[in-house]
Amino acid sequence: MRINPTIAQLALTGWLLLILGFGAAPAAALDYSIELDAPNAIRPLLTQNLDIYRWRDKPALDDAQLRRLYRLTPDSIAALLETEGYYSPSIVPSIEQQNGIWHLHFKVDPGEPVHVANITLSAQGALATDPAQYRAWLNEQYQLWPLKNGTVFRQAAWETAKRDLLTSLIIAKYPKARLLDSTAVVNPASHSVVINIVIDSGAVYHFSTTTITGLHRYPASIVERLNPIIPGEPYSQAKLLAFQSQLQGSTYFKTVNITTEADDVDPTALRVKVNLVEMQRQKLGFGLGISTDSGPRGQIEYQNLNSLDSNLRFTGTLKLDAQSSALSGQIARPRDEQGYVDSISATTNRTDIEGQITSQSATAIKRTRTRDRIETSLIAQYQVEHQTVAGSTGDNLQALTLNYIWTYRNVDNLIAPTRGYLFSTEIGGAAKSLLSDQSFVRSRSRAIYFYPVTERDSLTLRGELGIVFAPSTSGIPTDMLFRTGGDTTIRGYAYQSLGVQQGDAIVGGRYLINGSVEYTRWLTPKWGAALFYDRGNAVDTLQNFHTVAGYGAGVRWRSPIGPLNLDIAYGEAVSAFRIHFSLGSAF
Description:
Helix content: 10-25%
Distance between the termini: 54 Å
CATH architecture of the largest domain: Beta Barrel
Strand content: over 45%
CATH class of the largest domain: Mainly Beta
CATH topology of the largest domain: Porin
Low-confidence stretches: 1-27
Radius of gyration: 32 Å
Largest sheet: 16 strands, antiparallel
Number of strands: 27
């Protein structure tokens, strides 16, 4: 016995009922009830896929059509159960009409599911010509094969297993691999299934030369230094995807299309063709926004992707909001062969937050590298700063710092993650003997975890820990100390209003701890409602250290540019409510 009709075929049956028609459609939906007597494990499968449920509110349904649907339903139930491994169910239907209302009843006992009894995997083609390699491949595939002996045979798992087996060859060395045979023979009497898979791997392919088209503004070296493909090495789809990802992330190109084609001389060689559409060399951008942390804000940015015709990328930015102003410029080299991007920058900014006014100028040299899920940055920065706290005369200070940042991203979507986690840790410091007013070491770590509890419920956990090792905060730049509170840290409090009280101002401290738990119920695919609890604080001494809490509820919208969050939070320490508006995940 072989596998019977799929869910798609069952859905087609319902559409045929409409197309064929069985008399004139009534003006109102036919009134009928359905009683399904079935185990809870299979009820969702039936109620979500049976036509008898889907047609419940259709005005086109009449008595004759209902009776036909009723007669077809047992076969539909049996076919649906087969997708979950039940091939010998007991289905008892009944129908009656009382007071003009039809009552349908289906008693379903799925019976015992079938289990995998035997698996045979084999291959033909170039893969099978090397006995040692073939044995190693077979051993690996038997270990990875998900439908092992004794497991319940489910249609979705069967389709996924076949696809993954074939894909494992296509993406490495065998791009022309195909399935020659894939059978699953079911024996309902013994509740068993025998699986047989035969694959033709085809020939072993290797890379040939790489050609680039579409370059007009930028030199070919920008593309060549990102190319991981070596002529003569075995074909690898992963390398092609990595190459495309590197080019798309370089900011020089609007679109990147990488394809392969057979070589005219060697039929097992694949030429790599890179077709590019370049970004404009110069770009001027304007932005306006608003947040509950900093109020209205504006930004002007100028970018030149080939400054001075030297492949250098220049970016200049002016930012203004209610609490700060900043002007910055950066010159960056294109990514090199090892994946590094080197840059030099200069910034000047002024902030006025919680009674502390800071004017700062800084220059920095930075080396960044992104590989797969890991990003690293090494930054050397010299900064001078003038601090004024609550109207005092102010202090001048300087610091030469060296900082290292390590970030790991393992999420399903970088813009709007729903599963996975992100972790970042940084360490840096300064020495009093090297252009700094104070010696210190600073460490800060952050993590956020996304967990889909159900299809409609999600849990987000966030934590942050920071410490500055120094005898005091004297001589340490403001951005090397810690304050907290606001839209993305502890809701219920004003932006950076949690820290060290100094007169009428809040200044930074040497210790930071933040944590948050948020539970979201998605009412529709785009809109959700959230409950959250935040707790933390920033202080300058661990003696009598205590955290404060903020909690409340909010609305979530999955916008095209990331999650949009509108929250109302109660700050327990200030006994007041506060509205928070933010875009994106807090990381």
